[in-house]
Design brief:
By secondary structure, the protein is mostly beta strands. The protein has 4 domains: 111 residues, Spermadhesin, CUB domain (Jelly Rolls, Sandwich); 111 residues, Sandwich (Jelly Rolls), CATH 2.60.120.290; 84 residues, Zona pellucida, ZP-N domain (Immunoglobulin-like), CATH 2.60.40.3210; 140 residues, Zona pellucida, ZP-C domain (Immunoglobulin-like, Sandwich). 13% of the residues lie in helices and 41% in strands. A hairpin with a 2-residue loop joins strand 24 and strand 25. The chain starts with a helix and ends in a 9-residue tail after the last helix.
């Protein structure tokens, strides 16, 4: 009896632990899968903290009211850090089950805050865990919203070198159930520095409820730099010229929101000046530290046209069009140059003397031999510094549907009928209206590297094919047409390459104005401004089905060659095939005979 009395507390303790374990297991199973919404459509939002066990496969289905969309946010995810995305993940489906279209998959390796939207009547998400015995927590929040209703000042696009933006209603409380996205993009070569002057959002250690998410790139699929909330004033810097900022709020505890500003930072280290020449502009970068010697921060610098102002950041940038801002264009010795001058603004008329250094930056871009060469001459108290820069003509070639050259063909590869008329245009992308494009040579090849065999359509400006028609000079466009063909005994693809010349339209003695001229009459090998474009592949429509996915199989049609002789190549192939059959048959017979010799009949012994 005494033994029973002593064991009773231990028995009660064991029973209590078993009951608690059973209850916990039951609660876990009850929350593992569920249908949300449905009969309770008055509930416009719901937040859940999911505590997950090992080796679980749980599914939740959300039903939305009519004329509403579903937005689901996984603002905090703690899964197995060592688990693979295949064995432990969250999947979101558009529909009533996991058999619907997959909207996305999330695992511990993702570096963004997953947000999914669905306009279907239901949305399903599934969580699968592996066998590792660790703590797993997922905070999921969903709500219904009207897709045609927007919140003022909730997101937008910012593309200036510097700017500012705030949460909706700032400094008043931000709206509930808001999801705002701001896309910031500045010019190439710059980075973005984002500074939050104030953040006043709901305080939470994991920032599960109201938060700001900052992404290092043009979208929310870019890498997450930070997820912040509460009362902080952080600063972020992008690695490229784009940045994305997201504000997400729930249904309770609205505060002031945030106020932010951004500036652009030139990514490269510039000691003095830098010049880049392109087909439509000259880009000059001047270091602010260099301008300190002149007691200037760049505000007083100007071009020949003083209305063209620079952009100021950590550097001073002039973007000078080739046909504006006082740029002077000069043509001589088959060379085109563009020149402008950067100086300090003129002094007041009442001033007679100055004791400050004067700065004059002469910017010059010269078009030369398939590129543009840039030069800067800096005169500073009789001190001259020179810098060079290289660039290339910006040209492209495309196929068009008709001789109106209005609708570009974007399909690649482009499947055509044999003998179909093709319309080709080479375009020069430049702001200089006084240039023309001349088609010097256009040739076709069955390979993308333009290797042999090749076929000339245009040579020295002259048509070499009876179906080829070269259109007259037309500004920045060189145009021609020809009928589709196919290379014999070769691949079924056709690639085009055109070498073009770029001339001054006012020079009536230029090579472009001469049109079709034999190469022997005038050699253009030393011609300075030239470039080339390539387009392809072009394939016959019948090759689409005959060649499978590759489109490169060569076809031989019986109806095209009814009297084709049985040539020596066919005879040789046939003889090789017969010889192989004879050899295989001989080996097989010998093997069979040897087997028969090895397994001879043996007389059974008498027992």
């Amino acid at each position: 009896m005494e033994l029973v009395r002593r064991l009773m507390p231990l028995t009660l303790l064991i029973l209590s632990c078993l009951a608690e374990s059973t209850m916990a297991e039951a609660e876990g199973n009850s929350s593992c899968s569920a249908t949300l919404g449905g009969a309770n459509m008055a509930e416009t939002h719901k937040a859940m903290i999911l505590q997950l066990n090992p080796s679980e496969n749980c599914t939740w289905t959300i039903e939305r009211p009519e004329n509403k969309s579903i937005r689901i946010i996984f603002s905090y995810i703690q899964l197995d850090p060592d688990g693979s995305c295949e064995s432990e993940n969250i999947k979101v489906f558009d529909g009533t089950s996991s058999n619907g279209p997959l909207l996305g998959q999330v695992c511990s390796k993702n570096d963004y805050v997953p947000v999914f939207e669905s306009s279907a009547s239901t949305l399903t998400f599934q969580i699968v865990t592996d066998s590792a015995r660790i703590q797993r927590t997922v905070f999921v929040f969903h709500y219904f919203f009207s897709p045609n209703t927007s919140i003022p000042n909730c997101g937008g696009y910012l593309d200036t070198l510097e700017g500012s933006f705030t949460s909706p209603n700032y400094p008043n409380p931000h709206p509930e159930l808001a999801y705002c996205v701001w896309h910031i993009q500045v010019e190439k070569g710059y980075k973005i520095k984002l500074n939050f002057k104030e953040i006043f959002l709901e305080i939470d250690k994991q920032c599960k409820f109201d938060f700001l998410a900052i992404y290092d790139g043009p979208s929310t699929n870019s890498g997450l730099i930070g997820q912040v909330c509460g009362r902080v004033t952080p600063t972020f810097e992008s690695s490229s010229n784009s940045l994305t900022v997201v504000l997400s709020t729930d249904y309770a505890n609205s505060y002031r929101g945030f106020s932010a500003s951004y500036t652009s930072i030139y990514a490269e280290n510039i000691n003095t000046t830098s010049l880049t020449c392109s087909s439509d502009r000259m880009r000059v970068i001047i270091s602010k530290s260099y301008l300190e010697a002149f007691n200037s921060n760049g505000n007083t610098l100007q071009l020949k046209d003083p209305t063209c102002r620079p952009k100021l950041s950590n550097v001073v940038e002039f973007s000078i069009p080739l046909n504006g801002c006082g740029t002077i264009r000069k043509v001589e010795d088959q060379s085109i140059t563009y020149t402008n001058v950067i100086t300090f603004s003129a002094s007041s008329p009442s001033e007679v003397i100055t004791r400050q250094k004067q700065l004059q930056i002469i910017v010059k871009c010269e078009m030369e031999h398939n590129s543009t060469v840039g030069m800067i001459y800096i005169t500073e108290d009789d001190v001259i510094q020179n810098q060079n820069a290289l660039g290339k003509y910006n040209t492209s070639m495309a196929l068009f549907e008709s001789d109106s050259f209005e609708k570009t063909i974007l399909e690649s590869p482009y499947y055509v009928d044999l003998n179909q008329t093709l319309f080709v245009q080479v375009s020069l992308h430049t702001s200089d209206p006084n240039l023309v494009v001349f088609l010097d040579t256009c040739r076709a090849s069955p390979t993308s590297d333009l290797a042999s065999p090749t076929y000339d359509l245009i040579k020295s400006g002259c048509s070499q094919d009876e179906t080829c028609k070269v259109y007259p000079l037309f500004g920045h466009y060189g145009r021609f047409q020809f009928n589709a063909f196919k290379f014999l005994r070769s691949l079924s693809s056709v690639y085009l390459q055109c070498k073009v010349l770029i001339c001054d339209s006012s020079d009536h003695q230029s090579r472009c104005s001469q049109g079709c001229v034999s190469r022997s009459k005038r050699d253009i090998s030393s011609y300075k401004w030239k470039t080339d474009s390539i387009i392809g592949p072009i394939r016959l429509k019948r090759d689409r089905s005959a060649s499978g996915n590759s489109g490169f199989q060569h076809e031989t049609h019986a109806e095209e060659t009814p009297n084709q002789p049985f040539n020596s190549l066919h005879l040789f192939s046939f003889m090789v095939l017969v010889l192989n059959v004879v050899i295989v048959a001989t080996i097989t017979v010998r093997h069979f005979v040897n087997q028969r010799a090895y397994y001879k009949y043996q007389k059974l012994q008498n027992y």
